[in-house]
Amino acid sequence: MADALISPVVGGTMMAATACVAAYSIKKVQNDLDDKKVPLMGVMGAFVFASQMINFSIPATGSSGHLGGGMLLAILLGPYAGFLTMASILLIQALFFGDGGLLAYGCNVFNLGFYTCFIAYPFIYKRITRKGLTSGRIFGASMVSSILGLQMGAFSVVLETLFSGKTELPFNTFALLMQPIHLGIGIVEGLVTAAVVNFIWKARPEILEHTAAGTTFGRIPIKKVLTGILVAAIAIGGFVSWFASSDPDGLEWSMERTAGTTELKASESTVHNMLANIQSKTAFLPDYGFKTATGNKTDSYAGTSISGIVGGALTLGLAGLIGLVISVFKKKK
Amino acid sequence: MSKIVDSMYNIRLLDDLARKDTAIHRIHPVPKLLTTIVYLIVVVSFNRYEISGLLPFVIYPMVLILLAELPVMPILKRLLMVEPIIIGIGILNPVFDPKGWITFASIMMKCGLTVTACLILVSTTGLDKIAQALRTLKVPGIFVLQLLLTFRYISVLIEELARMVRAYALRAPQQKGVRLKDCGSFAGQLLLRTFDRAQRVYDSMKLRGFSGDYHSYGKSNVTGKDIIYLMAWSLFFIIARIYDIPAFLGLLFEGMSNT
Amino acid sequence: MSHYKLKVRNLHFSYPDGHEAIKDISFTIYPGESVGIIGENGSGKSTLLLLITGVLFPDKGEVIVGDVSVTKKSLAMIRQRLGMVFQDSDDQLFMTTVFDDVAFGPRNYNLDEKEVKARVDEALDMVGIPHLKDRAPFKLSGGEKRAAAIAGVLSMKPDMLIMDEPTSGLDPKSRRRLINTLKGFSHTKIITSHDLDMVLETCDRVIVIKDGEVAANGTTQEILTNQELLEKCGLEVPLSLQKCPVCGMIKWRPFTN
Fold first, then answer.
1. Tens-digit pLDDT profile for chain C (257 aa)?
2. Which of the other chains make 3 or more beta carbon contacts under 8 angstroms with chain A?
3. Contacts of B254 in chain A (CB under 8 A)
4. Where are the transmembrane segments (chain B) (predicted)?
5. What distance separates the 2 farthest-apart alpha carbons in chain B?
6. Which ranges of A215-263 does DSSP label H, i.e. alpha helix?
7. What are the backbone angles phi and psi of residue C210, rounded to the nearest 5°?
């Protein structure tokens, strides 16, 4: 998910949902503590970051894939620490590599961390490996949970994009595009995760046993399920309240949110008034909407094109001028 | 291998830039972070058909790049590396809507502006100061500490990984990347080293009095200048959001040329 | 500066996999002394240091700092007295800037920021790297990293410095600088190393460990010139005490004058 594809409302809602899950996870990690986990989380985050750069060649396809890491973090650190670790990896990626972005940060942590750590891990991975670890069970559990975790994440991306309304893509098409792509990615992720977990299980079984013992996720699921539902409710509540708002485009609503008031309409009309004033003074331009917003698009585009292009050029020229002044000023200093 | 080198180079470069000393670098990290967030929210709040309204928002990154003396090419390069993903989704728009090209252009512009804003934030602030800002904004110490640790050990582990990849590649000259059947022991080895290192890091933290809590910076104070920075930019963003400046300028221009 | 003696009494330790790393070790280190602990790879040196600092706890026997036995309860107090410098500086430089890293210890003891800053500056001065204050650890050279790691320990004002292989991986110049720095400290020092020439220069006394036991304990002169003992323990006489391969002379005789 990227900043460019989301609306402030979707970004904000997902950020809130992520913050809730993160706050809960921090509390859990702190209670379990075991302050040993803190450096382990940090260094594991660095590991996932580094391991994403290993290209594994996939036999018979000529292509290569790498580890995503969500499931691996959940399996090795437990869901809470795993989620938090994923959150810091993604923050560094957003800041240093421009992957994702700060507004979409909540979406990304949720998509890659929540479904893996809080759904795929407890309900799939733990279920399959409940009767004790075997090489086969680890393989199956890693495969299935990785694939499903990623499918949920991908679907979440589709929903977020759709609700944001920043693209024209119809739901069906987008979903039909995303899900199969992520099926492929999920299989690779599952294979790599399974191989790594199996290796660890053979080399240092105590690591896996420790995590399993540390988080009694399987035994008292009710509280956890309730938490999950609560979080989902917050997230869905955010979406629904947005959806229920008068304008399904989401733009107005998001503006209300941004400005904290419902003054967008008012300000728009001020723009109109002002422009109308100018119009009446110049008495030249025909009567059409200058705000190239959602409204009657087709006509207004043709109409505004000339003044739009000129205005755009002027704006950029102005920007260039400001830049020039700054650099001259800087040089003099 | 190129990916490894690239990410190391990128982290080092941004870290170097963050240690410069310019007017922008000296601004308190909290207002700087907030300004960036306001900028992102405003840019992203434009609808999918908007292009001209986004143009004035070029001013923010441009002014910052100049004032903070950031090099343009590395930022553009990074931008080009991120864009393909966005292009992938954006390019489908024209297929579904005749005006999809406008949507596409709008998305591309937003992507350029938002990514640049993030890169500018980190290269004028540095992760240590951003962490300080997060602490000031009441983000729990545990999270901030493990964020810092992740960042710190990325370079250590990437160097370790680079050695492993080199050793593997030298003995497997016929293939690209690591074979899938080796991936368990390959990534697993790195992971085991990671665990051992985590243990040693933990020991060294314990020996210096770590008790599960992270005590960060004594807070440096936000000055009037910092507030003005935040306020002035926010005001500009909001004005540029509400009034379509290019349309206004275009109108003025036509008005003038016609009188 | 140092008023505590360190006593190690009948220490035993086995790792969970059953490997018996330390089998009955006893010695005493007096305030202000500088003691080298030497022995071949796997002889138990590093484990011994972990036991002294309370990272690991012995199966039998005890470690006494001053008059306090190292137990889980006394750890916080003991650790303020002991400063441990790790073999791999990267394990110890875990913060994102040198300043933050050196400040990590003092901040954990809740000193106010002014005092923290004063201590950091002092520690950086002591190891000669005040100019690296704002640098990120990953951009430092090996020698600079080692110096920063030592500063991170000095800022806690310990009575005793414990160092695991302080000269490993350093180039000759950095090594020389480190040796001079170490000589300048008045702390009680415990140094493990394979760099016997460094031990020769910096330590008054040497303890040789072999297979988890003390093989010898005596003055540096006594031990580092005892070829038979050293070779039996997988070591050799320091280069500077060996005969010159060209002229057959011993160039440097630190103990004769």
1. 557 889 999 999 998 888 899 999 999 999 999 999 999 988 889 899 999 998 889 999 999 998 889 888 888 888 888 899 999 999 889 888 899 899 998 988 888 888 999 999 999 999 999 999 988 888 899 999 999 999 999 999 999 999 999 998 889 999 999 999 999 898 999 999 999 999 999 999 999 999 999 999 999 988 998 889 999 988 888 888 887 777 777 666 666 54
2. B
3. 282, 284-285, 306-307, 310
4. 29-47, 53-72, 102-127, 227-253
5. 79
6. 221-243, 251-259
7. -135, 125
Both structure tokens of C242: 């060996």
- A83: closest CA among A154, A153, A14, A25? A25
B242 inside domain: no
Question: Hey, where are the domains in chain C?
Answer: 6-241
Cα(B207)–Cα(B216) distance, rounded to whole angstroms?
18
Q: Select the residue of C55, C80, C90 nearest B206 (Cβ to Cβ).
A: C55
E runs forming strands in chain C: 6-14, 20-29, 34-38, 60-65, 68-69, 82-85, 160-164, 188-192, 205-210, 213-219
Nearest to C96 among B152, B201, B211 (CB): B152
Q: Give the strand pairing for A64-65 and A56-57.
A: antiparallel
Q: What residues in B contact A203, CB-CB < 8 Å? A: 188, 192
Structural domain tally of chain B?
Answer: 1
User: What is the rounded distance in angstroms from the CA atom of residue B165 to the CA atom of residue B155?
Assistant: 15
Q: Does C77 touch chain B (CB under 8 A)?
A: no
Q: Is residue B250 assigned to a domain? A: no
B27 HSE (CA, 13 A, CB side): 24
ipTM for the predicted complex comes to 0.88
Who among A42, A57, A87 is closest to B178 (CB)?
Answer: A57
**HSE-up (13 A, CA, CB side) for residue C230:** 21
Domain C6-241: what homologous superfamily? P-loop containing nucleotide triphosphate hydrolases (3.40.50.300)
Strands C205-210 and B178-179: unpaired
Determine the Cα–Cα distance for residues B151 and B128; give it in Å rounded to an integer: 10
A–B interface: beta-carbon pairs under 8 A: 393
